[in-house]
Specification:
single chain, alpha+beta, Outer membrane phospholipase (ompla), Chain C, 6 helices, 13 strands, elongated, disordered N terminus
């Protein structure tokens, strides 16, 4: 067997929509930066004029400038929210609000984690790889998986309506790190750039607070070509509800149709459906999560369930222990139509709550 057989397939292939989404994000970022800069200058000038008109005669222009230009908009601090009995989602959003004011800031989007041991009791399917390599490929049932997910604000408080624009990038890799027989290749890597509008609320619904709503567009691809290529584009919405230590996130989506000749996976919604629901519960420093996707829609035949538990690790504040269990379809794009029954153990770098 040629140990480099999988590496020849590791070529990046971005479809036109991917280029369009990336160009749109960059264009909005540039336009938003210009608007924010102009707004910041206007606020500073207004502050300076007001301060000069009311300041004592002993204050110099330099002191007035220093006072105005160093001011930062204040956001609710975490301790104040905890004292007021705020929910766990509101506390997390407050942390984002604090970081959002820092220029060139990158924040966690989805969870960031490393599963040092991810074991699939059903085994990873190598059929599609063998079809393009003309070699027998034996994947180990245990591999290393990790996810890195970051976001950054493109615009804040648009029209003074508590409306923000965010962009994010998430990469998830499936690495046969312990499979030296085939040169330990990355079996699959999924890339997802996205952009969305987000607005905060304090609406009440059946005892739950509607903390935020979002509307966005996402492109997801495995960056491969020919028979290994998998990708799709979605318009999605999000409704975030919370009650004390319990949170619910509803995320319906609509797939943007592609030309049949260029569609690598025309039946992907048969397995990934048209939305998912996330539940999260925080007990002290422990966070328990549940994701359900396409179960009701498929009659419990082609859906997926993911369970997660993050827990303190040796009283160390910067990482947590993490256990994740997945059962169903769509764990990765290459396996969207293959059943996976996997448990993983590792560390969590950033939690959702």
């Amino acid at each position: 067997m040629n140990p480099k057989v999988l590496h020849r397939q590791n070529r990046i292939c971005i479809k036109p929509f991917g280029f369009f989404l990336i160009f749109t994000i960059l264009s909005i970022a540039q336009f938003s930066c210009q608007i924010l800069l102009a707004a910041e200058i206007a606020r500073n000038d207004e502050c300076l004029l007001q301060l000069i008109s009311s300041a004592p005669d002993t204050m110099t222009i330099g002191e007035a400038k220093a006072q105005c230009y160093s001011q930062k908009a204040e956001k609710p601090v975490l301790q104040e929210l905890q004292d007021e009995g705020a929910g766990v989602v509101e506390e997390r959003l407050a942390l984002d609000d604090k970081n959002i004011l820092t220029p060139f800031s990158l924040m966690a989007h989805h969870s960031n984690y490393l599963l040092a041991g991810a074991h699939n009791f059903h085994g990873w399917d190598s059929t599609v790889y063998e079809a393009v390599s003309d070699n027998d490929i034996a994947f180990d049932n245990t591999e290393l998986q990790f996810q890195l997910s970051i976001k950054t604000p493109l615009a804040i408080d648009l029209f003074d309506k508590n409306l923000d624009i965010f962009a994010a990038y998430t990469v998830r890799s499936f690495w046969q790190a312990y499979n030296s027989d085939i040169s330990s290749p990355f079996r699959e890597t999924n890339h997802q750039p996205e952009i969305w509008l987000q607005t905060g609320h304090d609406w009440e619904f059946l005892g739950f607070k509607n903390s935020a709503n979002i509307l966005g567009i996402a492109h997801q691809s495995n960056g491969q070509a020919a028979e290994l290529s998998r990708s799709w584009n979605r318009v999605y919405a999000g409704i975030l509800l919370e009650k004390e230590n319990f949170a619910i996130f509803l995320k319906p989506w609509f797939r943007i149709t592609e030309d049949e000749s260029s569609d690598d996976n025309p039946d992907i919604t048969d397995y990934l459906g048209h939305g998912e629901i996330h539940l999260a519960y925080k007990k002290e420093d422990h966070v328990f999560t549940l994701m359900s996707r396409n179960n009701l829609e498929s009659g419990f035949s082609q859906g997926a369930v993911e369970l997660g538990w993050s827990f303190p690790l040796f009283h160390y504040d910067y990482v947590k222990g993490y256990i994740q269990y997945f059962s169903g379809y769509g764990e990765s794009l290459i396996d969207y139509n293959n059943y996976v029954n996997r448990i993983g153990f590792g560390i969590l770098l950033t939690d959702i709550l």
